[in-house]
Write a sequence for this structure.
C-alpha cells in the first residue's frame, strides 16, 4: 500500500505556520534544518552553511512548521535603501509535499515589507524559478552558476 500525503488544501488551516525563531533552541533547529539540506543532502557547503550574515542582529531567521513540527527555514536581512535579501530557503525532504515552502517565502516577503522594505531580492536554484514566479517574483537576468548549481536572481516589489 502506498502512503498518500495530504495536499496542502486538505490540511487544517493551522497545520502550516511560519514565524521568526524564538530563542537559542529554535535558532539551533533553524541551523540544523539548513545543514541537513545544504550540507548533507545537496552538498553545497562543507561542514556548515553559516556565514557572517547569521551573526548580524538585523537578520531574521524564520522557521516553518508542519503540524507543529519544524520543517523548513528562510533567512532575510536588509541590504540598503529599502532592499532586503531573502536566502537559505530550505525544507526538509519529508515535508516538501506539505506546502510549507510558499508560506515561508510569503512570511519573508511580509516581514521585509513590515520593516519598511520596498523590494526583496533572492538568488534561487534555477529549478525553483517557476515556484517563485507563481508567488509573484520576477527573474532578473539569466541563470548563472553558484556553488556548482545553476541559480536565478529574482526580485519582488514589497
Amino acid at each position: 500500500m502506498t502512503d498518500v500525503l495530504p495536499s496542502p488544501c486538505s490540511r487544517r488551516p493551522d497545520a502550516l505556520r511560519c514565524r521568526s525563531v524564538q530563542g537559542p533552541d529554535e535558532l539551533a533547529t533553524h541551523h540544523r534544518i539548513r545543514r541537513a539540506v545544504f550540507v548533507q543532502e545537496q552538498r553545497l557547503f562543507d561542514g556548515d552553511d553559516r556565514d557572517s550574515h547569521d551573526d548580524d542582529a538585523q537578520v531574521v531567521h524564520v522557521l516553518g512548521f508542519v503540524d507543529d513540527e519544524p520543517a523548513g527555514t528562510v533567512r532575510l536581512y536588509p541590504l540598503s535603501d529599502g532592499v532586503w535579501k531573502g536566502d537559505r530557503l530550505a525544507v526538509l525532504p519529508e515535508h516538501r509535499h506539505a506546502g510549507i515552502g510558499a508560506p515561508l517565502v510569503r512570511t519573508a516577503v511580509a516581514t521585509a515589507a513590515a520593516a519598511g522594505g520596498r523590494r526583496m531580492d533572492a538568488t534561487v536554484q534555477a529549478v525553483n524559478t517557476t515556484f517563485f514566479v507563481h508567488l509573484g517574483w520576477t527573474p532578473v537576468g539569466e541563470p548563472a552558476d553558484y556553488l556548482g548549481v545553476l541559480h536565478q536572481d529574482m526580485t519582488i516589489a514589497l
In short: Helices lie at 23-41, 101-114, 129-134. The chain is about 25% helix and 35% strand. Strands lie at 16-20, 60-66, 69-80, 83-91, 119-125, 138-146, 149-157. Confidence is low (pLDDT under 50) at residues 1-10.
